[in-house]
Amino acid sequence: MIYLFFLATPLVDPVATIRAHIAIQDYEGACQEAEKADKTRPVQEAYLAALSKNNDENKLLAVWKQYRTSREPSQEVIEDVAWGVLNQGITSSQPMIRAMGLVGASLSQDVRGVRLIKRATTDPCVFVRALAAEFAGHTRDLCLQQEMLRMFIIERDWQVRQAVIEAIGHMRIQGAAPHLRQRLTETDVTPEERLVLIEAIVNILDNVEDAELQYMASHERAGFRQLACLAIAHFNRTDKQDLLEKLVQDPRAEVRQLAYMAYGRLRLPVPKREEREATTALFAAWAIMLEQPLEGQKRLRPFLQHANEEIREMALAALVRAGKYAFPLAEELFFSTRDPYVQINLGLLMMGQRQHTERASHLVFSALMNTSERIMWKQDKIFRYLTKSDLKHREGVPHYPDAVDQMTRLEILGQLAIVRQPGVQEALTQFLREKTWGISGIASLILLTEGDDSVLEAIAPLISHPDSKVQLQAAIVMAAWGQEEKALPMLTQAYATASRQRKEQILEALGSIGAKESLPFLMDRLDESYQTLRLIAAAGILQTLYK
Questions:
Q1: Which CA distances in Å does 314 have to 286, 338, 388?
Q2: Helix or strand (DSSP H, E) at 30
Q3: Can you give the residue range of the structural domain that contains 38?
Q4: If I label 419, which of 216, 252, 275, 438 is the partner at 20 to 30 A Cα–Cα?
Q5: Cα(121)–Cα(39) distance, rounded to whole angstroms?
């Protein structure tokens, strides 16, 4: 009878039970079931999956350590553990830890990362919400699209709103266009927000009909008339010269500026008007320069000696933006000035146009080496120019002004290396020896895009430099800018004796490279006592697995 009872009783699969609890989000129950079951490999793997979602990092890592002593983990298990570490970070009471967890989530391109980004959009910290919006903009996930629209409607902080509007444009959220247009009509919209709104709307549009352009160009709100200018340029509507002629006579200077910008981009003949407002006159001079170089330079010349420094800088930027059409004025000014910023901006133009390359590179190098204050690239609509840094501390980005200064100098040194300017290699060596290249993972995501090949070519030989500090700095730069695998040995060897801050940078660099052979090293770092190191290691693991 007893025999028949046991025969009739079905055997319960503990792994199935654990997974069932996970499926209904009963993570505590899943952990309890795992603790009662025999510690077979499938049970331990299910246990790790449950712990990764239960926000018990200490228990997770203890089980993980025991599991690794006898088994080679599968990719699924490694993922679970890494996500468990990130989940713990995103729930931290410290905003910077939450931000670091968010960075790791954004690098994964995984549905679990999307969930963590969505969670961060309601974070009490402004910086974390803005970061979440910025990362959301790099996806096309429908859930995050809906979240960006929700944030656009309710968010009041400008730093976050700007990130949200830009994300909406990058994601091309069609349903957001009416809301953006409505915002353009409101009286409290600032000039800064108006431009961000206009760029987002243009990014969303697939095309623009004639009637729509006519409506925009005739709208009572200046924002819509600016939108018409940008749409004409963006969609290459050279057939809409009649609208541009109307817009270039607009009573609002900001509309006329974008109208001149459209003329320049489309290479259309520019109406010869006298502009009294300096910034608008600069846009007009730039557009004319592309069609009639000498006439445009004649109009621009007075602004290069303007009493207002900002006007002088923008005039210089307009001259540089004109490229080959900036000569002979650019050549004349370059050889007569003693201003280091004018020398660098025009010297880089000369080098790019292969004009007096040797002399230009020498003066650029000399000016750069003699400029001790922080520098930065400044973007003003279509004009980009080098100037002294006016950046302040940015929440969540350690040493933000220094990080921008470092990257700007490296970019210029890289361009000088291309033309083989004597002394550049020594300058790079000294730069890496004296400066601490320490851009955080957050800063690198915000500031770095694709590495400049010229920088990588200039830095590469220094990875074999006899000075170990120069070697390590070069390896970190190469990893951050170009995901260079040749930097791997130097990074892993230097880790043991490095400071905690330097360890963070090494782990970030390894994650950027994403080489499979670094996985065991990164997994070992999950045993670190500092949460920041575990978070960066977890992010690096996911970057490597998903590369």
A1: 11, 18, 14
A2: helix 27-36
A3: 2-72
A4: 438
A5: 39
Q: Is residue 151 part of a domain?
A: no
Answer for the pair 533, 507: CB distance below 8 angstroms, yes or no: yes
3-state helix, strand, coil in the chain (%, to 5): 75, 5, 25
Q: Which tokens hold the place of 16?
A: 């199935």
What the block records as the tokens of 538 is: 């977890």
- Round to whole Å and give the CA distance between 211 and 231: 13
Number of domains in the chain: 1
> Could you tell me which residue, 477 or 246, shows the higher pLDDT?
246
Three-class DSSP labels, 394-432: ECCECCHHHHHHHHHHHHHHHHHHHCCCCCHHHHHHHHH
Q: How far apart are CA 362 and CA 371, in angstroms?
A: 14
Is the separation of the CB atoms in 246 and 225 below 8 Å?
no
Task: Decide if 139 contacts 170 (C-beta within 8 A).
Answer: no
Q: Is residue 144 part of a domain?
A: no
Please name the residues in contact with 219: beta carbons below 8 A apart, sequence gap of 6 or more. Answer: 225, 228
42, burial (CB in 10 Å: exposed 0-12, middle 13-18, buried 19+):
middle
Tell me the pLDDT band of 11, cut-offs 50, 70 and 90.
low
Mean pLDDT of the region 433-442: 54
CA distance linking residue 409 with residue 412, whole number of Å: 5
- The mean pLDDT of 14-21, rounded to a whole number, is 90
- Tell whether 199 is covered by a domain: no
- pLDDT tens, residue by residue, 308-361: 999 999 999 999 999 999 999 999 999 999 999 999 999 999 999 999 999 999
Structural element, H or E, at residue 388: strand 383-388
Taking residue 273's Cβ as centre, other Cβ atoms within 10 Å add up to: 12
Give, to the nearest 10 degrees, the angle between helix 75-90 and helix 95-108.
150
pLDDT over 50 at 365, yes or no: yes
Is 67 inside a domain boundary? yes
Are 274 and 265 a contacting pair, CB within 8 Å? no
Three-state DSSP class for 383?
strand
- Please name the residues in contact with 458: beta carbons below 8 A apart, sequence gap of 6 or more: 413, 414, 417, 424, 425, 428
- Beta-carbon contacts of 199 under 8 Å, excluding residues fewer than 6 positions away, are 166, 169, 230
